[in-house]
Design goal:
mainly alpha, globular
């Protein structure tokens, strides 16, 4: 009994819970602005309380989301059908099914094999080794929507073993030999690849849904990829070299890394049947995501096709699907946040906010307002411990204000979408992989924040100027 009570106390944090409830209650009893539907204000109170819960975390994200859905129905702010409507959103199921597919990369070992192949090919120098880790992340990103699973589950273990092989271990003064540099570059690489594909980070499909609901902007899988391609590749090339210059490793040559990778590949042997099937499914879903719009095949349908093939061929079992807790957790919080954001828009809350804020930036050119709002959106991530919480709280509102200020809708939607991954560069708590890489102990908090801030400047320069030129070519503005 004592153990059960202790588990409950560990799961439930009383002070954060009281903070979450207090925020919602205070906003609830503030009179709504004149002309605004009272139900919109009530939903806003529940929404803010839910976001507060995601930040202070009195309970896991999925539990907070369920409480938010319950509050919507219990207070008659929405009907129970409306409160549960988020579960029917096709974009939500795209990311959930992609989680299941990503399990195949880890279960079969194909993800690790891909990483070792890059290390074997390009890992003779420390800088080349960092590019090898980023290249493997880039290849896996389209089909692994959990950047934590991708960075922490596939890239990090390989990084850790390579660093140890060169006598670079946390806590014994050897961190700067190679481990600190690899940890920092691999983490930053995960943020970049997360920005490059709709299916590379769990909050990206939330962005897609919000852009469609708030501004009627339909971003396709291919459209996202093409828009991010040039600035993304440039950033992947520049950032490791930049970190190499401002935070250089002591060991510059790593000839043994290729040898270690070759030995690992030899241990793994030839491609197993399950790996071959996983590779075929990966090529299939990637092809259909790129060409599906021309064939009339929805992106979510493509993901379901991929999962069905993996189940039919026994690459994945139904037990594997049931045990993928990250997917089911994502389904709960995603459904709740999409539902609330959608009804905040239809009940008039977001249009009211955009009109109010548009008057504030009304005297500026759309370009000036656009840049200021984008920078505020980026650097406000210092206050968030989750990409999802940040996107949920600010994306729709900032997009609405940008468009109201005169910015092209697609340009605004995409820039905020890309920044929704890139802003994780700043802190050691701002996204799922951050605690994994920072928690390794290779980089001090001060160095992590210092390098993260400078990398954020590199991101902004590349994505605003090179990205801006590329988007001009694409006709986005």
């Amino acid at each position: 009994m004592g153990k059960t009570d202790g588990s409950i106390k560990k799961e439930l944090k009383l002070v954060p819970l009281l903070i979450t409830l207090a925020v919602g209650v205070i906003i609830w009893f503030i009179p709504p602005p004149e002309g605004l539907d009272p139900k919109a204000w009530q939903l806003f109170a529940i929404f803010v309380a839910t976001i507060t819960g995601l930040i202070v975390k009195p309970l896991p994200m999925g539990a907070i989301a369920i409480m938010g859905i319950t509050a919507c129905a219990l207070t008659n702010t929405l009907t129970i059908g409306q409160a549960l409507s988020g579960f029917s959103n096709t974009t939500i199921w795209l990311i959930v099914v992609a989680f299941f597919i990503s399990r195949g990369f880890i279960k079969t070992g194909l993800g690790a094999r891909i990483a070792y192949l890059f290390v074997n090919k390009f890992g003779k120098k420390t800088l080349g080794l960092s590019y090898a880790l980023l290249a493997s992340d880039l290849v896996l990103a389209p089909a692994i929507p959990s950047n934590t699973a991708r960075g922490g589950g596939i890239v990090y273990p390989i990084l850790r073993s390579l660093a140890a092989a060169y006598g670079s271990n946390p806590g014994d003064g050897t961190e700067r030999k190679i481990g600190a540099f690899l940890a920092k570059t691999a983490f930053q690489g995960t943020n970049i690849t997360s920005a490059m594909f709709m299916t590379a980070m769990a909050a990206n499909p939330l962005v897609i849904t919000l852009a469609a609901d708030v501004a009627g902007v339909e971003i396709t899988w291919t459209g996202w990829m093409i828009a991010a391609l040039v600035p993304g590749l440039v950033t992947l090339i520049v950032v490791p070299y930049f970190i190499y210059k401002i935070y250089p490793p002591e060991i510059k040559e790593t000839p043994n890394a290729s040898k270690i990778a070759a030995e690992k590949l030899e241990e793994m042997g030839a491609l197993k049947q399950s790996e071959k099937l996983m590779l075929l499914v990966f090529v299939l879903i990637l092809s259909l995501w790129i060409l599906g719009s021309n064939l009339g095949i929805n992106a979510t349908t493509t993901a379901l096709i991929g999962l069905s093939v993996l189940l039919l061929t026994s690459v994945l079992s139904w037990e594997d699907v049931k045990k993928e807790t990250g997917a089911w957790d994502t389904l709960c919080w995603f459904a709740a946040l999409v539902m609330m954001a959608s009804f905040l828009n239809s009940l008039g809350m977001i249009p009211w906010f955009s009109e109010t804020m548009a008057s504030v930036v009304g005297g500026m050119s759309w370009l000036t307002a656009f840049v200021i709002l984008a920078l505020v959106y980026y650097y406000s991530h210092y206050f968030f411990a989750s990409n999802t919480a940040h996107v949920s709280a600010m994306y729709a509102a900032f997009l609405a204000v940008m468009i109201a200020a005169g910015a092209p809708a697609m340009l605004a939607a995409l820039v905020l979408a890309f920044f929704s991954s890139l802003f994780s560069s700043t802190t050691h708590y701002g996204t799922g992989p951050a605690p994994v890489f920072f928690g390794s102990g290779y980089v001090t908090q001060g160095e992590w924040w210092r390098i993260g801030f400078f990398v954020s400047l590199v991101h902004i320069v590349i994505w605003v100027f090179i990205g801006g030129a590329w988007w001009k070519v694409l006709g986005l503005w």
